[in-house]
Design brief:
Bound molecules: uracil
Radius of gyration: 21 Å
Distance between the termini: 16 Å
Helix content: 10-25%
Shape: elongated
Structural class: alpha+beta
Number of strands: 17
Length: 240
């Protein structure tokens, strides 16, 4: 249970007095009725809207972002611009962080949350949640590269989990790669072993959940409950 004015202030990243003002001006509805009091105690089942837009009263949020190039996967307060810095103001609440890291020049699906347990689940190599990427290569891949990826390659001293690799175009310079762990620069290093350079890299799917194609680079949206459950790692009571 949380006071309505505090919930709105946290969700919208505004002051408590600004939240009280919104309630007073009739912009806030609880379960389709105008909110009367800032000290109303919200439960997880209450549907709260501000200016017609739903804000969840749940503790945890899960955001899908189409990460642009030039932004790092970290929380706020870094020297460089982070994925949390570029969230729209009304989505920025405390303690958000990206569940997993894409390189600064990699684009695509980043999941941003404040749920540490969930992030651990989707990142743990033990859970084997597959991550799917499209990679643009400087030369064509051949059968020997595919076999090395799929056999669980040796990368330096480390034996990797089997990955999936297939060509997406006739020239065999656009590849679809599925990996189940997240080692530093993993895909670039896997191709480099075969003297192939990755020119562009985009993550297009986490588990069974594809990146929403309607999101432009830098755009994001909340992940819905059925989508979260499709990741197979979130108990019902933690869904948005
Ligand atoms: N592998 C890489 O090399 N870079 C990424 O950003 C993700 C996977």
């Amino acid at each position: 249970m949380q006071r309505l004015d505090k919930l709105i202030a946290d969700k919208l990243n505004i002051t408590r007095s600004a939240a009280k003002q919104l309630i007073k001006s009739g912009e806030v509805f609880v379960n389709a009725s105008p909110a009367k009091s800032p000290d109303y105690k919200c439960t997880d089942n209450d549907r709260i809207t501000v200016s017609g837009r739903e804000i969840s009263s749940n503790k945890f949020v899960y955001i899908m972002m189409n990460k642009p190039k030039g932004v790092i996967c970290a929380s706020e307060g870094e020297k460089e611009k982070t994925v949390v810095d570029i969230l729209p103001k009304d989505m920025k609440i405390k303690n958000l962080f990206p569940a997993g890291r894409l390189d600064k020049d990699t684009t695509g699906f980043v999941l941003i949350t404040n749920d540490g347990e969930f992030a651990h689940d989707i990142l743990s190599p033990k859970k084997h949640v597959p991550k799917t990427y499209l990679a643009l290569l400087d030369k064509p891949l051949d059968k020997s590269v595919i076999m090395d990826f799929e056999g669980g390659m040796m990368l330096g001293e480390e034996k990797l989990l089997p990955a999936t690799l297939s060509a997406e175009n006739e020239e065999k310079t656009l590849a679809r790669v599925v990996i189940r762990q997240g080692i530093y620069h993993q895909i670039k290093r896997m191709f480099k072993k075969h003297k192939i350079e990755v020119l562009e890299l985009k993550r297009i799917k986490i588990g069974a959940l594809p990146l929403d194609e309607s999101l432009g680079e830098g755009e994001c949206r909340y992940i819905t409950s059925p989508e979260l459950l499709s990741l197979g790692t979130v108990p019902n009571d933690r869904a948005v």
